[in-house]
């Protein structure tokens, strides 16, 4: 039960209470019974017997990690991070062409995907994040749940996939922002021609600016998230009010319920049913993505001890990241569905007239028809600002994940140790932030190839779901009786069902992401997501077996003995039960 290891691992408290004979019980100053769970090797080379109390403020240190980031995010702030990255209206503008190619009835696809697919994934992820309150919770859970022989390679694969997805997601957000900015220029100057070079220039400028904002201190970053939430909410309310009024003023007939909920189109050479599946179910997955961002920010979250008198769904302060995930998915699922209906109601009866638009986003054409040039420029400019705020949130979450992975030496030590440094003035991982920015600038070069640019979106979703599916699948199979439970847990039966639905949905959506948008595609129409995703993963695993297996050994504690005692507190730790000194290996 307490075998020495380089890594921290937990056993559920309930299970521990049933196996008291195999544990060491210690009574803390708060009179809560605490149980020895396992061991990790400290930075000094000593084995530390990990205990786990009800106080979630100690959870990170009890995982074996030093608290370096400032805790300043409430559960509402973490909701704001995810909600900002999703940036509902800017994201809908980016995917509306694809959605409309299946007809107005694609709004049903949005609703189904949001609540029958994405929400179960979010709930399953919330359980993982609650059990492992670390920025690297996704890969930590994969390492913990995997068979002993495959722990390191399994965790490394999840690291690579999650990093690819997060980086591609940040790229796609800034890419959409550059498109919105250029759409504004197109409206103001109809003869303006958008080129790949211009798009990349705008993209590079705003991603560098976004990384500067993302490097601010925790207090400033928190305010940015709050501003982003209110700003995106204001955008939605503005369009909900202005667009119907403008449509009526321009005497454009509103589409009726039969059109809104029954219209199906086919702008591809797939069958109408195949086209609907590809283009009605996928847009929500592209928009409601990166909802793992609250987990990557969890080391900056403000926790409160679990209130056992309240139901788990009524105690968000005990699991801020979990509630950030669930609230953001639910809000974007419902509000996005209503916004889709609003746009389809006001677009006019001719789908062809909208789809034939010369604008980068066909939503721009809807605004032009109903609101005129001045209002369109104003709203599109606000959408561009909203998209930029999305990018700041995305690059912040990505940099926290990058920092956590470097802390565990997923990269070569000389590089990882330099990047896994927190700035003492701002309490933020600035080096990881600019490392993330560099990766995003390199990935952004895909803009110069149309299918490559589209792959940024699909890689962000496919890689993301592949990374999440691994620990969730292991949780309901190999680790079904031993997986860790945090404050947020729905119970054995409901948790198993939710995870089963989540894994099934993710498998289905990964396949959809790999399918080309046209049947029998040529070289220019091919979907290269499978090439990019599995190609990068294959290169990374090759590097692991040739080189990185020497350095990457799963979770790696950066706490010294003294730092652990200072964090946990001698009176709570039961010092005599804490240390078992061994020779350094």
UniProtKB/TrEMBL annotation:
Where is it located?
Answer: Membrane
Which Pfam families does this entry report, sorted A to Z? AA_permease_2
> Keywords assigned by UniProt?
Membrane, Transmembrane, Transmembrane helix, Transport
Write down the superkingdom of origin: Eukaryota
Q: Does the keyword Transmembrane helix apply?
A: yes
Extract one GO molecular function annotation from the record: transmembrane transporter activity
Q: What is this protein called?
A: Amino acid transporter
Originating organism = Hanseniaspora valbyensis NRRL Y-1626
